[in-house]
Recover the amino acids of this structure.
């Protein structure tokens, strides 16, 4: 196991980012990320303190999930885990899924890692899973996220007006999609 | 409400059951419109859902999967009618006959954001194409916005269902997006159309009068 921690198992290797499976020994790290309100700001979940039991429950549910496909995101330069990314509602009949990402490490933000992670996940969704349309929701209080998704190939296909409350006001939920090349 | 009888019925929220049509023995109207009414969904109506959900013409647009539906699967699905705070489902009645003709519901109700998602199906073939879906949808939006106090209601509908899209638009929904080629039907890819209704753009047809604050009544009486 210590060997795994020193050299994590990787599924997909990009230029500066690599993706590997969720790991039980990283639960304390997820626990820390889940309790960072700066990350919560852009996620849809109810913000609040999260216990280690809740982080463990999250891991138990998703480590064996058939509905969602989760990866840990690694920075190749350091081989440190910096966040997570996942496809949910994978629907092979219609060829659709939803994409999401959360970079929990504050130092890893603003470096283009989100954009590269998004590209790698779209590559996986289209070329490995054979999906046709990958979509995401992002709130209008997160322009950095919107720009990263655009760079990776997403375009806006709709806007749910005033559907997200944060900081005492309402924001739009922006719907974005990419079609298979 | 166009006459004294109707007003009387509205105040008691109940219409007499028409026994000729073998209606369910318990039938209660919570929201009464012109031609349809909405009430709670009783367990004894499960056989109706079993019949409706095995009508492939209904399944084409219902967005609940492709069937066939066993009674056990219908029972499991209908558990959602015993709704917690995240769901609210109503039976749709044709007022003229007192017959249940379909169901409508709000799902994923999120009190924090004031949002919910809408779904409806008119199960009875003879009740389709009469504008009942439009009126039921308008009453459901009234429920969502007036007593529930939601801010926004969303739905999605397949591009190959222009009848549904037209009915939702008439009831108060506006198209806000279109996810391209995301639904496969009949060997072809179709768009999924997203429509939204906002409380600030909706005028209550029925429930604003029912849920009027007492202070207004007192003021009017003075």
């Amino acid at each position: 196991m210590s060997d795994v921690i020193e050299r994590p198992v990787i599924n997909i290797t990009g230029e500066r980012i690599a993706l590997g499976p969720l790991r039980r020994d990283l639960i304390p790290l997820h626990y820390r990320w889940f309790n960072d309100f700066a990350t919560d700001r852009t996620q849809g979940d109810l913000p609040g303190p999260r216990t280690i039991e809740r982080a463990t429950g999250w891991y138990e549910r998703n480590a064996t999930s058939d509905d969602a496909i989760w990866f840990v995101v690694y920075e190749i330069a350091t081989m440190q885990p910096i966040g997570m990314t996942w496809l949910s509602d994978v629907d092979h009949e219609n060829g659709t899924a939803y994409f999401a990402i959360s970079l929990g490490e504050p130092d890893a933000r603003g470096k283009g890692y989100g954009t590269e992670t998004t590209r790698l996940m779209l590559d996986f969704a289209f070329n490995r899973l054979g999906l046709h349309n990958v979509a995401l929701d992002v709130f209008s209080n997160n322009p950095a996220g919107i720009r990263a998704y655009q760079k990776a190939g997403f375009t806006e296909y709709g806007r749910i007006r005033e559907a997200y409350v944060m900081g005492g006001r309402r924001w739009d939920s922006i719907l974005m999609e990419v079609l298979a090349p | 409400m166009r006459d004294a009888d109707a007003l009387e019925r509205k105040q008691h929220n109940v219409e007499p059951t028409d026994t000729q049509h073998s209606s369910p023995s318990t039938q209660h109207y919570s929201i009464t419109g012109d031609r349809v009414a909405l009430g709670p969904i009783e367990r004894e109506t499960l056989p109706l859902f079993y019949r409706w959900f095995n009508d492939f013409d209904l399944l084409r647009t219902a967005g609940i999967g492709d069937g066939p539906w066993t009674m056990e699967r219908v029972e499991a699905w209908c558990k959602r009618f015993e709704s917690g705070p995240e769901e609210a489902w109503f039976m749709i009645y044709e007022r003229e006959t007192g017959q249940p003709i379909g169901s409508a519901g709000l799902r994923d109700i999120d009190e924090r954001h004031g949002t919910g998602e809408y779904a409806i199906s008119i199960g009875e073939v003879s009740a389709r194409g009469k504008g009942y879906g439009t009126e039921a949808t308008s009453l459901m939006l009234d429920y969502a916005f007036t007593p529930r106090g939601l801010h926004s209601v969303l739905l999605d509908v397949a591009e190959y269902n222009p009848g549904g899209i037209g009915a939702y638009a008439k009831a108060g929904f506006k198209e806000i997006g279109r996810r391209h080629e995301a639904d496969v039907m009949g060997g072809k890819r179709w768009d999924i159309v997203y429509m939204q209704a906002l409380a600030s753009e909706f005028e209550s047809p029925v429930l604003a009068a029912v849920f009027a604050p007492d202070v207004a009544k007192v003021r009017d009486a003075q």
User: Anything to note?
Assistant: The first strand of chain A starts at residue 12 and ends at 13. The longest helix of chain A spans residues 113-128. Helices of chain A lie at 2-6, 27-34, 37-40, 52-63, 113-128, 143-152.
